[in-house]
Design goal:
Two copies of one chain form a homodimer. Chain A has a seven-stranded mixed β-sheet with strand order 2-10-9-8-5-3-4, with helices on both faces. Chain A contains nine helices and 13 strands. By secondary structure, chain A is of the alpha/beta class.
């Protein structure tokens, strides 16, 4: 096989056309756009405008691009959103939401409103929540909308009443349409569908700005950042994101991404459901469309699978070390042909390695 | 003129060979190296080892690569280094050191040990300091070693006794040899000589790790970061830095960079000293080798200069808005020919625009 397909959970593979554009830009100086210059500000605004149009972000939401990944947001969210009450509720659906929760505990009274840690296997589903699970005086409720380690995704938007819902959408933003108005804050690492590893995007409802604690580092202050102060990503990363947004819009936007991603994911899930060699060890209704976790049920066989797949040009299929098994991340840059190649390898591997 | 020379203070122009290598890496998947993978860890370690060899960083210093620019360090330094005493001294030599100082004041008892704000023009020199200027119980002393806005640079290393000296070397690291052992911490934004905008490097003496305040965001905790936890830059940016370090070493290292940078800077400074049309409005002994600030003495003429230079392919020569005039940043990626082209334009401009 001459082509390589990269199934990494992050950074995602680059979209080939975007790479060529960025290389052109680097070669002719465009990626060197000076911080603070008119050209930089225009690039920032255009990138935000592209994202706004693509996702359908209402006008009362600000868009912020920040250096660093989603882990920056684990502390930025509580430092920006906790008010004098300093109280927030977290829904725990995996390791990432646990990390976010642990970080938030440095800054206030953080409660776990619901958790699927007790599921078997651990985190193989997302918690079912109801409005009464959340404290009425919480400053916000935090969820991780898609859990790339376990291959699960919220199949519903929790009813949090009037509380601001904050969602880590790192591994799912741009994979399908989302009703932004249901959320107070959406944030996502640039390393997946956004296609700009090293930065993250924050989409925040305007009325939530301005509550940051006095000692918040300036580079994490959403209000300052939304006003163009405090720091910003280099032009190189903004250009990468902008090209991805443009290309995504040009092929049909998020409805088309949803159609493509469902088609890719179903290719694998349908195979799991009809053949028993591989299984997706999670609750069916919470299946992620972007991170497909599966196992053979034999850890040694799983390792053999990952190694042989790599030799066939199907790379980064190893599951997260904390759960083992395999994981195929099917972000927007993964073509249907890549999933077909994986399926074909899976069939071949299952025939060559019969289980007893 | 077909060639364009970019004199921006940041991000610096990319080194052409590095751009080609990075584009190759992006095209064939190298820049997608998965976070946390063996390949990523190897890349991180190799990049650090290259920097250690290039700069001659002693073994008792750790090297950390972090997402974000130098402004992240403005808060990271006090959050990591202030101990129970919570007291540090800042030397103010320009707008950037003022920003660093202002940020630090959120976290402790911060004193201004010395300042050149009163110079005429403002910040046209760096403060002369003596050991008695610093509080003996300060946790550290902070300086900005090169001030890109004013075109000044410390011509000496302040004597701080046993106190750890923390230096922002954003616009000068890699431009000449530096005795790291004289410093407790050196940090630099990746956007200048390091050639990786969007990340910064921190070089820290091991004994200074472990004093971070309890509520420091994990992604800013030097100790965690030095142990591979808390966050890291994308492979793309590490690869850019690594290639720059390799290329710099391959042409002769920092001694050669110093020779080249002095030769470039002298071309301009010698011209200022022999002709009176342009002047560098700063103290001679503090002249920066990397950021050459100059004026005609007539603000309208300065603007005309910047505009006409741009039309001739000499870009980003406008001085910082706070000081006006012109600024030519001569980072390692700026070839001698670029400075010759600038000088040639300067001569022509002075003849076409006589002053009375």
């Amino acid at each position: 096989m001459d082509v390589t397909y990269n199934f990494s959970a992050g950074p995602a593979a680059f979209i080939p056309g975007v790479v060529a554009d960025i290389c052109d830009a680097m070669t002719c100086g465009g990626a060197e756009t000076e911080y603070g210059s008119d050209a930089y500000r225009a690039l920032y605004t255009e990138t935000a405008d592209e994202l706004r149009a693509l996702v359908g972000i209402p006008q009362n939401y600000r868009i912020i691009f920040m250096p660093g990944g989603s882990s920056v947001q684990y502390s930025a969210v509580p430092m920006n959103l906790l008010t004098a009450r300093r109280c927030a509720d977290y829904v725990i659906s995996g390791k990432l939401s646990k990390s976010a929760c642990l970080e938030a505990k440095k800054y206030g009274d953080i409660a776990i409103a619901a958790s699927s840690a007790g599921a078997n296997p651990v985190f193989s589903t997302v918690p079912e929540t109801k409005r009464a699970d959340f404290r009425p005086d919480a400053d916000y409720v935090h969820i991780c909308f898609n859990n790339p380690i376990y291959g699960t995704k919220f199949h519903y938007i929790p009813d949090v009443g009037n509380l601001p819902l904050v969602a880590d959408m790192t591994a799912c933003l741009l994979s399908e349409p989302v009703d932004v108005s249901k959320f107070g804050v959406i944030y996502a690492d640039g390393m997946t569908n956004i296609g700009a590893p090293g930065m993250s995007v924050v989409i925040i409802r305007e009325d939530l700005l301005g509550n940051a604690r006095a000692d918040i580092p300036a580079h994490m202050n959403y209000k300052l950042l939304s006003e163009g102060e405090g720091g910003c990503p280099p032009a190189l990363l903004l250009m990468m994101a902008k090209r991805v947004f443009e290309k995504t819009a040009s092929v049909g936007g998020l409805e088309e991404m949803k159609r493509r991603n469902e088609r890719k994911a179903c290719l694998l899930y349908d195979y799991f459901d009809t053949m028993s060699y591989y299984t997706a060890p999670i609750d069916r209704k919470c299946r992620s469309m972007t991170n497909i976790v599966f196992v053979t049920g034999d850890a040694a066989l799983d390792r053999k699978f990952v190694t042989e797949a790599r030799e066939c040009g199907l790379t980064n299929l190893m599951g997260d070390p904390s759960v083992g098994g395999m994981r195929a991340s099917l972000y927007n840059s993964m073509p249907y042909e890549g999933v077909e190649a994986l399926l074909s390898f899976m069939r071949k591997f299952s025939m060559e390695n019969p289980k007893f």
